[in-house]
TrEMBL record:
<dbReference type="Pfam" id="PF00155">
    <property type="entry name" value="Aminotran_1_2"/>
</dbReference>
<dbReference type="InterPro" id="IPR015422">
    <property type="entry name" value="PyrdxlP-dep_Trfase_small"/>
</dbReference>
<dbReference type="GO" id="GO:0030170">
    <property type="term" value="F:pyridoxal phosphate binding"/>
</dbReference>
<dbReference type="GO" id="GO:0005737">
    <property type="term" value="C:cytoplasm"/>
</dbReference>
<feature type="domain" description="Aminotransferase class I/classII large">
    <location>
        <begin position="36"/>
        <end position="387"/>
    </location>
</feature>
<dbReference type="InterPro" id="IPR004839">
    <property type="entry name" value="Aminotransferase_I/II_large"/>
</dbReference>
<dbReference type="InterPro" id="IPR015424">
    <property type="entry name" value="PyrdxlP-dep_Trfase"/>
</dbReference>
<keyword id="KW-0808">Transferase</keyword>
<protein>
    <recommendedName>
        <fullName>aspartate transaminase</fullName>
        <ecNumber>2.6.1.1</ecNumber>
    </recommendedName>
</protein>
<dbReference type="GO" id="GO:0016212">
    <property type="term" value="F:kynurenine-oxoglutarate transaminase activity"/>
</dbReference>
<dbReference type="InterPro" id="IPR051326">
    <property type="entry name" value="Kynurenine-oxoglutarate_AT"/>
</dbReference>
<keyword id="KW-0663">Pyridoxal phosphate</keyword>
<comment type="similarity">
    <text>Belongs to the class-I pyridoxal-phosphate-dependent aminotransferase family.</text>
</comment>
<dbReference type="GO" id="GO:0004069">
    <property type="term" value="F:L-aspartate:2-oxoglutarate aminotransferase activity"/>
</dbReference>
<keyword id="KW-0032">Aminotransferase</keyword>
<comment type="subunit">
    <text>Homodimer.</text>
</comment>
<dbReference type="InterPro" id="IPR015421">
    <property type="entry name" value="PyrdxlP-dep_Trfase_major"/>
</dbReference>
Amino acid sequence: MSAGMSERDPLGHPVYRDMPTTIFEKMSGRARETGAINLGQGFPDAQGPEEILRAAADALMTRSNQYPPMAGLAELRGAVAAHYARHQGIDLSPQEVIVTSGATEAIAASLLALVRPGDEVLVLAPLYDAYLPLIERAGGVARVLRLTPPDWRIGREALAAAVTPNTRLLLMNNPVNPTGIALREQELALLAELCVENDLIAICDEVWEHVIYDGVAHRPLIGFPGMRDRTVKIGSAGKIFSLTGWKVGWMCAAPALATLLARAHQFITFTTPPHLQWAVAEGLARPESWFDAMRGAYQASRDRLVAGLRGAGYVVNACAATWFVTVDLPASGIDMDDVAFCERIIEEAGVAAIPISAFYPAEPVTHLVRLCFSKADGILDEAAARLAAFRASLI
Ligand code: GLN
């Protein structure tokens, strides 16, 4: 301990002092060590779209590698605005788009910019594990509305009861990781009404907006009545283009909000690598058929893993979006909680997964396990075969 630091003054901010490493990193680390098939952390195993990789490589060699404008290259800001106009009917100006180093940075910047000391932030569990520490570190207080399977439905009364006079923000994810659901039209309408009635700002983590199946269209909250000027819409090139390591994201909001968001962003990462921004701008301009093909391929992977698991006696919940399916352990005849099951399968079956309890701060749902299907057919088949053998060994 260095001079001047007393026993009563332990090192580090309380939010981080006792915090475990995120479950995604932990499970990927275990998979690397043990050689397990990694269906834990959500990332594809493919190289990524050739034409977008090529665009990034070309830009790296032929364009500037110095600081781009702080809020992002004009070309990418324009491409994001044009993309949302075309795909979601939203009318944004390029000045309302701030490019970030991934969606997690966008969430952090939004919270740092908008949470005032003591403000309450309404969140819906299950939730991405970054939300709560970021809210707390930003000086806010999280109010968690706990949702439960099988429907994960958001009810009007529960929502109203979670709001207090100190609530200033709603932080939400749609489509939802880890449940794989897309919020229903009435639920989005309820959330929008709640925001308008209580004068809340909504931070919408919509990173899965394009990874949605069975012909269903994504419905952005910013498009609901009264939401245009009170919503921060967050997107991710990593998810849209299957390039999670790129860490290119953005946050879109009306000018008064965007100005604040940019101030927070400028002192987190300041800028995002320019060659990646050029490539993402090109990617966003791809024709509708490109996005359909991407969705079609993941939908086939979803169906493949689900069929393999069901064939092995597992009960798998419906998945409308994301790269994840959830397995119901008790319904599958497995008498273990999610953490125990994930421990057993990584060691004994050689498959890494994520326990759903990791997405709850309290009173977790403990009977569901998340598996990522954005993998090659052979990997999915091998994982299903290993999990089949594991289940058979229990009976
Ligand atoms: N979104 C990823 C997942 O759910 C995790 C992102 C991360 O690990 N930072 O697996």
